[in-house]
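Quality-control log, excerpt.
Job 1 of 2 completed; input and output follow.
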Amino acid sequence: MAGHRHHRREALHCCPACAASVLGRPRRRRLARPPWAWLTLLGVVAALVPLAATEGGGSALAQAAIASPVSPILEPAVPVPSVPEIVPDQPASEKPPAPTTPAVKWRDSRAVGTPNAGRLENGVRLPSSGAGYYTYNPATQEPPGGSDRTWGTARLVHEVIDLGEWWARTHPKRPLLGIGDLSRETGGPFTGPVVGHQSHQNGLDVDIRLVRRDGAQAAAGAGSYDRALTQAVIDRLVSRGASLVLIGPSLDLHGPAGVVMHWPAHDDHLHVRFPG
């Protein structure tokens, strides 16, 4: 090795040709990189840094969010006011429901004899008032009817109650129908003291006031009765099977021959009879 170095030094000092043979070809100088290359490299690095942060840091943030969920912010509950139930107003023209008829003690009653000479067995008493009707005492012309003057057969009492209910349904704005005498509790002669009857003895007869034009619940006559409404009452009674309806000679009313008849002393009421 020492000899080799010695010969190399001698060749360098001998002549330029020998020096060139020893040193060989001169080395090329490395060229400097242009500035745009560094800028490109810096741009790539700058682009990779956020991506790495997103891939790594974003995952870490997501894991942190899963590990520690953030509670939602709840708005305070606002009480909801209760809405009152809306009840539709009743039309002003409507009247309150008509009173119902009190309970009736129904019995198997029987009309014995004839209306002018008879008696009543197991009579049924008509309540003093009910749907569409009221009772009055002909002796005083005031309600209610006397407790010893409102007895009849079950058929007659049923027909009077039915008439009142029909009247309440079909004429709710009109006054109630006035019901007068029926029969005594056991029938028989129906004398005074103030008002008496030749008939009304076996529970088949009933007196009914004429309907007034002015709507009053009071006695009526030829000059104060409502012809159309009173005629409607007669028509209803006939349709229900009345066998006799007596009307005053001054009243402009009508009905089937042999059933609706003009009779003296009946200008202020209808005298109605139903078969036994």
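Job 2 of 2 completed; input and output follow.
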Amino acid sequence: MEQEMYHMGFFQLQHITEDHQNAIDGITTYDNFNLTRKFSNVMFLLNLVLLFIDYINRSKGLWIINDGYYYLFLSHVIFGIVLLLYILVSYSIIAHSANEITLSHKLYVILYAFFFLFMTAVVSGIDQKIHGQVTVYIIGCIIIAVIFNYNLRVTALLYGSSFATLMIFLNISQKDPDIRQGNYINAFSIVVISYFISFLLYKLKQQDLRHKYYLEDLVTERTKELQAVNNLLSQEIFERKRAEMEMVKLDRLSLIGKMAASISHEVRNPMTTVKGFLQLLRKKQDSKDKEYFDLMIEELDRANSILSEFLSISRNKPTMLELYNINDIVTSTLPLIQADAQTNDKLLIVELNNVPDLQLDIPEIRQLLLNLVRNGFEAMTSGGQLKIRTFSTNSEVALVVSDEGNGIEQSMLEKLGTPFFTTKEQGTGLGLAVCYGIVSRHNGRISVESNHKGSSFYVYFELSN
């Protein structure tokens, strides 16, 4: 947020928003309101003292000697009644914070100041018949200037109207032109001085409050910037950690792949020989022993399939890439998947969106899809729903397989794709490892989201340039 500065005399006031200016006005009015309430109570008690003095003056017969004392008594009575009304009103519109300030509070404090200065002008006018001074008006102007805080236009209106009232009463009550002229000068001087004091205190308070909001905005802005930087750093750390984990996983896959490529033929050759002799011996044996030979041949086939999966992990395995649409691979594999769904009593939902063609090894992508789908089926109970979905972003095409199983524990998510790691009783721990190997050879990535409602495997492929 751009902050501007402008100068007013020796003041430097920060440019703030309209909302903040309204908040400052509310704080100023709130302070004036609380001061007015307290000052009204003090003045009411002081007025009681003045009424007692009026009673003493009456007892001394001063009312008869000079009717100014009588008019002074009447002004004190009016002043006390109005003060009492102000005190009662203040309790009916009490505000506990600046946010509760309304137009009623603003009018209350302005009318009180107007009434107070008006009464000091009236009393000073009446006092011309007694002492010929404007001391009360001078004290009133100083009090308003020092205690309260009004904006400059309201201050000018208050002093201007009260000065006009005093001039009228001086013309009526003071017959001596020299004294009247002296009082004119005194009153005008105090009005100018009071206005200057009000101006000075008002600007200082505005400067203080504006600076406070300026600092709050500055802190808020800097906090947002730091938060943004912190988020970027956190994201970068997360991405770096994820990349490191992927590198470790790929290194393991690469090592195991190299081992698989180097020993697979050495292991398969004797297994093929053993299988061949078992098949020959099976034909020569009695029927009662054939089931044992069938079992041994079946186990050799199972071991051979494990070796095939083990060999699929290799990152160095050659891939036959061709431009193809992944939706076509999903569609061509659907009959097999639907058969598995019916066999396992599961529901299947397919949502294929328009996606660009990719450089793909079709058999490997089909194997990837089947592995993920069968894992999803095995993770769910009867009646569970599995969803296959494809979509694209600006830079990637995604294949998503979601199930409604019990989810994967967070502690196990990091181990997914590690060869021989499995949570199944009959699992080999090679299915996901094969998937990670296939995706790695396609320069893609796998992301897993899992909770108690199920798991979703997101396979992302980068779009070809």
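Post-run check on job 2. The two ends are 40 Å apart (CA to CA).
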